[in-house]
Design a protein that fits this description.
Elements (H helix, E strand, L loop, with lengths): L11 H16 L3 H15 L3 H9 L16 H10 L1
Helix pairs in contact: 1-2, 1-3
Length: 84
């Protein structure tokens, strides 16, 4: 299985399109196919392997805040609404 890649000089927008086109294919591939895809994408984009793996694995991930959630009583919440 090969990655979907147009062979030409690429700007950052085109590299992003290549990554997005290969995300679903990458997730559903076997380990051998993933190695081949990573090699091809690395040659074309010039990105490092770890960065490509990161880009291929993040799809609609929500970054959560760490720590406790803020809890305000009614008085404080009225004032915070005005500040925002």
């Amino acid at each position: 299985m090969n990655a979907i890649i147009p062979y030409q000089n690429l700007n950052s927008r085109q590299k992003k399109i290549i990554i997005e086109a290969n995300q679903k294919l990458y997730r559903n591939s076997s380990k051998k196919d993933k190695i081949i895809m990573l090699n091809e994408i690395e040659d074309i984009t010039g990105y490092s392997r770890k960065y490509i793996i990161y880009l291929l694995n993040i799809h609609n991930k929500v970054i959560r805040r760490r720590g406790r959630k803020r809890v305000y009583n009614e008085k404080v919440s009225l004032y915070t609404r005005f500040v925002e």
